[in-house]
Specification:
With about 350 residues, the chain is an alpha+beta fold. Among the domains are: about 140 residues, 2-Layer Sandwich (Gyrase A, domain 2), CATH 3.30.1360.120; about 70 residues, Aminomethyltransferase beta-barrel domains (Elongation Factor Tu (Ef-tu), domain 3). It contains nine helices and 19 strands. Helix 2 packs across helix 8. The longest helix has 13 residues. The N and C termini lie far apart (about 40 Å).
């Protein structure tokens, strides 16, 4: 099966992107400067990612609030129109079907943003319309993100953290949210396809560096942000990932609630844990973690940290290990010395 191409595919090729399969899409992995330099530019300045492979399910009309409130884990009563919220979709057993950002755009209008491969699962669970093919999503991230996006349109820069605004940008509606997945400040711009190339090129002209999904992954790992298919899966739980704050304990119902209430009472069987290698060897997901000569679980994510210049990883481990505990990571037939660290690995620059 051929991977889907984002609307801006040809533009990325013109900009020198290396294209790879990702979640059923053909997406930029990196551009000419490479993943490490793009990562460091995000930490120090500003980059733009095309994240149009993420889904958008538009839930517009009466009853949408109640449908989302009864289905997704977080509690919409904590926010209101013009705000964004991170949340989970669970199955009846309490396992994670997807992690999602909800943009509450207007009184009865929500953009529900699932991961690339999970849009159909969200449209099955909620009475919304899949509009993924109608728009592009550009994520501008980094300590200088707002300053530089403001050179294109000051109203983009004015949207605060986890806020959502509609902006009339040269005759088209751009939906702007103060969200992202790098651990840095920034905004995400949902723009109709017809204006997407123009907007991307103007961001680049304003000094924003294009970056690929390789850097987005190393950035989110340094920030200890969970990734669907790694820390969050259909065999892991919200509590195991240390994300109990996205469970709306005070609301009447959400899918999987009974299972997570039972899990809370007995305690999660695994715990998300961060490890850092003693050297530069990148760590990899699937590598076994050994403490006191006993295997305690496997890494769910692993890579090289461009900021720390060490291998780093996260795993769902069946023992609670305190920071500074020595561990061995069994990587490709050899042991890599590492230690447990408090998360996140790197805090944002600003």
């Amino acid at each position: 099966m051929t991977d889907r191409r984002p609307f801006l595919y040809d533009t990325h090729v013109e900009l020198g992107a290396r294209i790879v399969p990702f979640g059923g899409w053909a997406m930029p992995l990196h551009y000419a400067t490479g993943t490490v330099q793009e990562h460091l530019t995000c930490r120090r300045d500003a980059v733009v990612f095309d994240v149009s492979h993420l889904g958008t399910v538009r839930c517009d009309g009466p009853g949408m609030y109640d449908a989302i409130q009864a289905t997704l884990t977080n509690d919409l009563r904590k926010i209101g129109p013009g705000r964004a919220q991170y949340t989970h979709l669970l199955d009846d057993g309490g396992f994670v079907v997807d992690d999602i950002i909800v943009w509450w755009v207007g009184e009865n209008e929500f953009d529900v943003m699932p991961n690339a491969s999970n849009t159909a699962g969200v449209t099955d669970a909620l009475p919304g319309q899949d509009v993924t093919n109608e728009r592009c999503v550009l994520a501008v991230q980094g300590p200088q993100a707002r300053a530089k996006v403001g050179l294109v349109d000051p109203r983009f820069a004015a949207v605060g953290r986890f806020r959502v605004e509609r902006v009339d940008f040269r005759g088209v509606e751009v939906r702007v949210a103060g969200t992202g997945y790098t651990g840095e400040a920034g905004v995400e711009l949902s723009v109709p396809n017809a204006a997407a190339r123009e907007l991307l090129l103007e961001l680049i002209a304003a000094g924003v560096t294009p970056a690929g999904l390789g850097a987005r992954d190393t950035l989110r790992l340094e920030a200890a942000l969970p990734l669907y298919g790694h820390e969050l899966t259909r065999s892991s739980t919200t509590l195991e990932a240390g994300l109990g704050w996205v469970l709306g304990w005070d609301k009447a119902e959400f899918r999987g609630r009974a299972a997570v209430v039972a899990e809370r009472e007995r305690g999660p069987r695994r715990h998300v844990t961060g490890v850092i290698a003693e050297g530069r060897q990148p760590l990899r997901d699937g590598a076994m973690v050994v403490a006191d000569d006993v295997a305690v679980g496997a890494l769910s994510s692993g890579n090289f940290s461009p900021v720390l210049e060490r291998g780093i990883g996260m795993g769902l481990l069946n023992r609670v290990l305190e920071p500074e505990t020595a561990v061995n990571i069994q990587l490709r037939g050899r042991d890599v010395a590492a230690r447990v660290v408090a998360l996140p690995f790197v805090r944002k620059a600003s």
